[in-house]
Design a protein that fits this description.
Strand order of the largest sheet: 8-5-9-11
Helix content: 40-55%
Radius of gyration: 23 Å
Order of helices and strands: HEHEHEHHEEEHEHEHEEHHEHH
CATH class: Alpha Beta
Largest sheet: 4 strands, mixed
Distance between the termini: 77 Å
Length: 335
């Protein structure tokens, strides 16, 4: 009996040793992080910071490769690549998830949130946290919200009132809300990948676009857009996402360390996004290539009133509970 126990213990030790040896042979867990913008943007800097911190704290356990500027996957195919585990981390803008959940359309609704602080409050509350898990049935799990900033409208003519946009063609991301937004203005929305925006504006294929200041400056869009109206009409946020089978397959202790790193990076990204947008706004204004137009309170309210039918159109798909939670953060700010 004792001999049998010794033999079994020896076998167990041999198997454990073989398993450890096999794990070592497999090498570190590889995370490919792809995105479609420049390294200099808040998202680009966030990806590089994530790589840096992982290399510092999880050397030999996890390896991160960063692919910026659509160099691995572009707007059109990155999410399908994630679902197939061909890439393990993405940070697409929230508008890109419409195919997988309608609830995230709340972030695209024009003039719904008063400002970025209202967006922050919504994302930190229960309803906002629930939305991170709204696509797991589609093999997409949200890990964090990353800011890029509030969106501004650029165009070949000055946009001060909603009627000024009528007849212009605007580049949009694939989003039913954004399409409805420009239709409501009497404008023509045109879906184009982000990598093609500069050329489309330069050639006159489209006459306008919506972007945060950092995207406008980093892609030199201001050089082909003579007018930029500071509308702050919507938020261009990203959701850091992974493949849930991959993510939950990471050993628990390593995953907890990665999630801690993501929390740190998210804080840094969001602070940098705010600073970058302020700095890039000043750079654009100083360049003299674009006239920056500030809306009066009355003009802003006119835009908001013009957009309310879009809210009503999408409330059934987004959910009355989500819409109420979003508007509550605004009301509390005003009180």
């Amino acid at each position: 009996m004792f001999k049998s126990i010794v033999v079994m213990a020896a076998c167990a030790l041999t198997l454990a040793s073989a398993g450890a040896h096999s794990a070592q042979e497999q090498g570190p867990i590889l995370i490919k992080f792809a995105h479609v913008v420049a390294d200099s943007t808040p998202k680009g800097q966030g990806a590089l910071l994530f790589k840096q911190l992982v290399e510092e704290r999880l050397a030999g356990k996890v390896k991160v490769e960063v692919y910026p500027n659509s160099s691995l996957y572009g707007d059109a195919d990155e999410l399908e690549a994630l679902r197939n585990n061909e890439v393990q981390l993405l940070a697409p803008s929230l508008a890109k998830f419409e195919k997988y959940t309608k609830q995230l359309q709340v972030f695209d609704l024009p003039f719904l949130f008063d400002d970025l602080e209202a967006v922050n409050r919504f994302q930190k509350r229960a309803k906002g946290r629930q939305l991170l898990r709204s696509m797991e049935d589609h093999n997409i799990v949200g890990l964090a919200y990353w800011h890029n900033g509030m969106k501004q409208l650029s165009a070949t003519k000055a946009l001060q009132m909603p009627t000024d946009a009528a007849g212009l063609r605007f580049r949009i991301q694939p989003s039913g809300v954004l399409e409805a937004q420009f239709n409501q203005l009497g404008a023509v929305p045109q879906k184009l990948p982000f990598a093609e925006v500069f050329t489309a504006l330069q050639s006159g294929q489209v006459q306008g676009a919506e972007n945060p200041w950092s995207n406008i400056y980093s892609q030199k869009l201001h050089s082909v857009q003579p007018y930029i109206t500071e509308t702050n009409h919507g938020v261009l946020d990203y959701m850091l996402v992974s493949n849930p089978r991959f993510w939950y397959g990471i050993p628990h202790q390593v995953r907890m360390q990665l999630e801690g790193i993501i929390d740190e990076v998210t804080y840094a990204v969001n602070r940098q996004a705010e600073a970058a947008n302020q700095q890039d706004r000043q750079r654009i204004e100083a360049s003299g290539s674009s006239q920056v137009i500030a809306l009066t309170a009355e003009q802003r309210e006119a835009w908001r009133s013009a957009m309310r039918p879009v809210w009503q159109q999408f409330e059934p798909a987004i959910g009355a509970d989500v819409m109420k939670a979003a508007q509550t953060v605004n009301r509390k700010q005003r009180n």
